[in-house]
Structures are given as C-alpha cells and as structure tokens.
Design goal:
There is one protein chain. The protein has one domain (29-247): outer membrane lipoprotein receptor (LolB), chain A. The chain has 5 helices and 15 strands. It has helices at residues 2-27, 31-43, 140-144, 256-259, 263-266; strands at residues 48-58, 64-75, 82-90, 98-103, 110-115, 120-123, 151-158, 162-169, 179-185, 191-197, 203-210, 213-215, 218-220, 223-228, 234-244. Strand 9 (179-185) and strand 10 (191-197) form a beta hairpin.
C-alpha cells in the first residue's frame, strides 16, 4: 500500500515538474519577437537621434589612436528604413570625414564616405559592410545594424535577466563568422554582449554594451567595446550628449551633407 502511494506521489510530482518546465518554456516570447525587440531597442529608439562619440583604438602592444565624431540618425516614416550621418571632428587627419548611410534592410544599404583631403566621395560596396570602420575594430555594419533576415536565430538559453540567442548566417560565404551568440537584457531588450565564432567554433570577436542610462525615455548604452581576440586589439567607444526626437529634417541625410555637414544639427541642443 505504501509502495503504491509512493509511486503515485512520485508520478504526480513528476507531472507537476513537467508542467512547470513546460510553462517556463512557454513563458519565453517567440525568437522572432525577441530579435525584433532587440533590434528596435538598439537602432530605432525615438524617431531620430543624436550622439557624440569618442573612439579609442588599441592594438595588442597597447598603442592607441583616437577618433571623435557625431552621429545623427533618422527613421524613415512608415518603413524600417533609416538614415545615418557620421561626421568626424578629431584627430586632424580625420576632421570633416563624413559617412552617410541610407539603410534599407529589405533591399540593401546605400553607403558613402567623404574623404576631405582628396575631396572624394566614395561609394562603399555592399561587400564592405563587415570591414573596418576608419581603422577601428568596429565594422560598418555595427554602426547601422545587420538585416535580421540574413541569419537563422535560435533561443539557446534563458536566465532570470537575459535571453541568449544563437544566430547562423543563411549565406555563410558572405561573412567571416560561422555564427554569433547574443545576450539580450530582458528589461531593456538591449543586446549586452555578442560573441562571434569562427569555423573552428572558437570565439574570435566580442562586442559589449555597458553604462546603460535612460535618455528621453529610451535605455541607451554609454559605452561599447569591441575586442578582436585574434589580433589582441580592441576599440572602446564612449557616448555622450545623446538625445532623441529632435525633428531632424530629411535634407540632413543627402549627399550634399557629405561636403557640407549640417553644423546646426551637429551641435548639442
């Protein structure tokens, strides 16, 4: 009799455990919802935005270079398209260098780089999205984001504070990584860490966000660090003067701004 009762209790406990585990699994949002919210938090805060950035580039021997620039961003109303304008102020050899992006996730981005010393506007080829941005460990694609549809996404872990996703490129020949894993904060939906893995399964590149502050109602990282574990170098970007919903006009994000940056919008408001 006792054995039967023990067996029954064990069965009920096992069933309850199974039900609890199932409810926890079901509690997680669909993967597509997670990545869309993370993308929204990372790149679409407000209708537009402005921030100043100071970039410190460090090689494996500790030698450093700096870059200083201002970023302007505008969302194109009624679509997932965006415009970016990045204007450099320091050091002197990069002063007045300008980077313009018309981000079109479904059709491919249009990107231009203005080099003042040569008075040359250079169109950046689509294949250059994952190459160094002005000599840093940051890539062009890191500035304006990666098309979510270019990768297969899978939820591999959930903690009390974060969702952990693994993403694998649909066209691996187009990128240098085999996969990447992203830690997404449940409260802010910001990706706090991304690890890129090579064909041998080794992590070779790490991106981290830190110093999150709420600016105009939007959680905003005030520091980004990119580490290249193969070369031993890293780039740290510190942000300040962030603001959103400024009403930046369309005219700021035209090719004219490459040679004539909009000084009134580059200043803090």
């Amino acid at each position: 009799m006792k054995a039967n009762l023990l067996k029954m209790a064990t069965g009920l406990l096992g069933g309850a455990t199974l039900m609890l585990s199932s409810s926890l699994i079901m509690a997680a949002p669909p993967v597509q919802e997670i990545i869309e919210k993370a993308n929204q938090a990372s790149y679409y805060a407000g209708q537009d935005g402005r921030a100043e950035a100071r970039m410190k580039i460090e090689d494996k021997d500790g030698r450093t270079q700096t870059r200083q620039f201002t970023v302007l961003r505008q969302d194109v109303e009624g679509s997932d398209q965006q415009n970016y304008l990045v204007v450099f102020s320091r050091p002197s050899e990069y002063r007045d260098t300008v980077f313009l992006v018309h981000k079109k996730p479904q059709a491919g981005d249009d990107r231009w780089l203005y080099l003042p010393d040569l008075d040359l506007v250079r169109r950046i080829a689509p294949g250059d999205k994952r190459t160094s941005f002005v000599g840093a460990h940051v890539y062009y694609e890191d500035i304006s984001g990666r098309n979510l549809n270019q990768d297969e996404h899978k939820l591999v872990e959930e903690t009390d504070d974060q969702y952990v996703l693994k993403s694998t490129p649909k066209n691996p020949g187009e990128v240098e990584f085999a996969s990447f894993q992203t830690w997404i904060d449940k409260e802010t939906w910001l990706p706090m860490r991304i690890e890129y893995t090579d064909d041998e399964g080794e992590v070779y590149r790490i991106m981290e966000n830190a110093g999150v502050e709420v600016v105009d109602g939007y959680p905003t990282p005030m520091m980004m660090r990119v580490q290249d574990l193969k070369s031993g170098g890293q780039t740290i970007v510190q942000f300040r003067g962030a603001s959103y919903d400024l009403g930046i006009p369309d005219s700021v994000f035209t090719e004219r701004s490459l040679r004539n940056p909009p000084s009134d919008w580059l200043e803090r408001r």
